[in-house]
């Protein structure tokens, strides 16, 4: 049911109870009347939000094609309430699920960037387990499933381990922001409970992965490892030889939109010109 007006004004959805309550900002672009195409759902990365370049470009594509587009800010991000330091994969997954249940599209394509790729894969598992909208495709941009246990924990320095033990978090310089990245003990411990790279992942839908080969945050070998865990799905892996982690250049955006168009076309049986 898409009864929201087609503008960029956010709505707020209350998620959680008691001390865990937080207001999650959502922007919903309704589908064109009579459209049976799936809704696009944008899932941001760690410390990113729904106003980023890729999210806005995806919304623009939805407007062009008459599709619904759902964007949200996780708690502690963007316009949503809550402390960033309280964030965990389970918490942000709960929020994404709540938004999907609230908007209630019939069919969805998940588009996840970096950590959003991990949340997309967990969403696929939870939608299969709990029921809900039919998942008809996924586009993952530099996906970072299990990044806490696969990419952070093995590389922790002694001073970072000490900070985690004594303060419950450690800080890391960010190349994208003057503010440091903060990784909490809660995030790392919760990450172990949300691992997806410990067995076969069955999304039941086509998956297109876009991965830069000059990604300093998520090495391209990580994308190849993810493919190994998707043996039952139709997977396309596109390497971008000079691409970094953000993949926000015009040429990268063109690849993203083309990938989304491809999955929309296959889901409707009406190919969309690239």
From TrEMBL:
As given in the record, the signal peptide range reads none
Q: Which EC numbers does the record give?
A: 3.1.1.93, 3.1.2.22
Query: Can you give the residue ranges of the AB hydrolase-1 domain?
Result: 57-250
Q: Which GO terms describe its molecular function?
A: mycophenolic acid acyl-glucuronide esterase activity; palmitoyl-(protein) hydrolase activity
Instruction: Read off the Pfam families from this record.
Output: Abhydrolase_6
Q: What does this protein do?
A: Acts as an acyl-protein thioesterase that hydrolyzes fatty acids from acylated residues in proteins. Regulates the mitochondrial S-depalmitoylation of the nucleophilic active site residue of peroxiredoxin-5/PRDX5, a key antioxidant protein, therefore modulating mitochondrial antioxidant ability. Also catalyzes the deglucuronidation of mycophenolic acid acyl-glucuronide, an active metabolite of the immunosuppressant drug mycophenolate.
What protein does this entry describe? Palmitoyl-protein thioesterase ABHD10, mitochondrial
Give the originating organism.
Rhizobium leguminosarum bv. trifolii (strain WSM2304)
């Amino acid at each position: 049911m898409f009864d929201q007006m087609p503008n960029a004004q956010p709505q707020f959805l209350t998620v959680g109870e008691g001390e865990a309550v937080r207001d999650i900002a959502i922007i919903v672009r309704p589908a064109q009347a009579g459209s049976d195409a799936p809704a696009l759902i944008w899932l941001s990365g760690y410390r990113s939000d729904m106003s980023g370049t890729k999210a806005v470009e995806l919304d623009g594509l939805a407007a062009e094609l008459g599709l619904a587009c759902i964007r949200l800010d996780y708690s502690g991000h963007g316009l949503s309430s809550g402390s960033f330091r309280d964030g965990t994969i389970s918490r942000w997954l709960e929020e994404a699920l709540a938004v999907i249940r609230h908007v209630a599209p019939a069919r969805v394509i998940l588009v996840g960037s970096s950590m959003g790729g991990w949340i997309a894969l967990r969403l696929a598992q939870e939608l299969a387990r709990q029921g809900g909208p039919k998942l008809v495709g996924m586009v993952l941009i530099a996906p970072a499933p299990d990044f806490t246990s696969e990419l952070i924990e093995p590389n922790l320095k002694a001073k970072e381990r000490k900070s985690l033990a004594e303060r419950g978090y450690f800080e890391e310089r960010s190349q994208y922001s003057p503010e440091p990245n903060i990784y909490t003990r809660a995030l790392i411990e919760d990450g172990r409970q949300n691992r997806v790279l410990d067995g076969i992942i069955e999304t039941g839908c086509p998956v297109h992965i876009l991965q830069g080969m000059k990604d300093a945050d998520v090495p391209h070998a990580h994308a190849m490892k993810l493919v190994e865990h998707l043996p039952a799905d139709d997977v396309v892996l596109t390497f971008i030889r000079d691409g970094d982690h953000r993949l926000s250049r015009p040429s990268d955006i063109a690849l993203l939109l083309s990938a989304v168009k491809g999955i929309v076309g296959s889901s409707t049986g009406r190919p969309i010109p690239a």
